[in-house]
Amino acid sequence: MAGRTVVITDKATGKSVECPVLEGTYGAPVIDSRPLARELGMFVHDIGFGATSACRSAITYLDGDQGILLHRGYPIEQLAENSSFTEVAYLLIHGELPNARQMSEWDHSIKMHTMTHEHVNTFYQGYRYDAHPMSMLQGVVGALASFYHEPQTDYRHDTDHLLTARRVIGKMPNLASKCYRYSNGLPFVYPDNSRSYVENFMYMMFSWPTEPYHPNPTAVRALDLLFILHADHEQNASTSTVRLAGSSENNPFACISAGIATLWGKAHGGANEAVVHMLEEIGSPANVRKYVDRAKDKNDNYRLMGFGHRVYKNYDPRAKIIRKVCHELLTELSLDQPMFEVALELENIALKDDYFIERKLYPNVDFYSGIIYRALKIPMNMFTPMFALARSTGWIAQWIELMEDEDFRIGRPRQLYVGSERRDYVPVAERSGA
Ligand code: ACO
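Output (structure tokens, whole complex):
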């Protein structure tokens, strides 16, 4: 076998297998473990997929030890400083930055998909008055599958993937804003395509039909930045869910809906809402030590929300950017945010504490994003839907990459069975205790 290989020997039988080692542009080399199953009849056991590569991808690279995040090769810091959310969406999907003409065509083509079928509005009416917006968003995005569905569609070869991307990106602000409007008994607002992507979203969320609406440009820029930072993040839980759903050659809106379900949990996208609950509960910088001690206590399930990451064992580069913007935004909008003081004290104490140092637990992107959303007067239960809105660009880029992958196969993990041995059925009357 040419190239680098790894030999694995089963000491019980003396049989060996040679597995190819695959090298990417960056990152740890990857062992192609398929010969293990073929030749030794063994599988790899990796709960949580911490040591498993499930696909080849050219979209996003992250180095958790160095705190590096690249989209199509461009560092997140440069994109945050110079780009816009829709440009980053173009980059994720097309692989290259657009020229001026391509950018203007892209923006226009997204605007052509900001409306939804009028019947979509009736779906919202079925939700309870106090439904969580993530539950509504998951449902209505899934419902769009019925508006863009042909029986037996070959999603790999017979669909226009770019059109699908434009539909998803164009409609998400409309769908997410309606979750908020429904919860608050407000009339739905149609998109206004004379506005930018983010401004249009704010308009659909916050405007009154009776009044002109002019959002604060600082707030628009801050939100655009948050959307850039949330646009994609490699093979995280929700993205892997979208890929797994897509691997059965399923409708893309159904796949995005599955991603939304996974994002909702507090260990993932739901952390931004959980962070603000936590900071409110802590209340004052003087109480921080008590909560840090709780997080360290093995007999207490309490965790500091917004701390820790499966891959980053260094400062999350997105958290660094957000932290700076948080300072600037609060100063620029002249906002007094006691919550920010609590967050700074929490970060300060935790980063000096041996428990967090030894486990390499640093603030992640969601530690600060909730404070920014709060400063922008976004209701707390809308934080995660807004994350979903931004991440849907990454999800659809990853879905397209999967659909166009020559190595496409349905995702089908194996397991280590630890249940009963084979046994025969016993009629109920003959079972013990009858
Ligand atoms: N507070 C206190 N201790 C923690 C925390 C935390 N936030 N996170 C991890 N630890 C501890 C664990 O108790 C464990 O300690 P041990 O080795 O003594 O048992 C050790 O650090 C490793 O933790 P794991 O749970 O094994 O790490 P894993 O990679 O599986 O989980 C996760 C990562 C889910 C992000 C975790 O750190 C967490 O729950 N953080 C809080 C929730 C959060 O902020 N999620 C957002 C993630 S970013 C995103 O999805 C956008």
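The beta strands are 5-9, 16-22, 30-31, 60-63, 68-71, 74-75.
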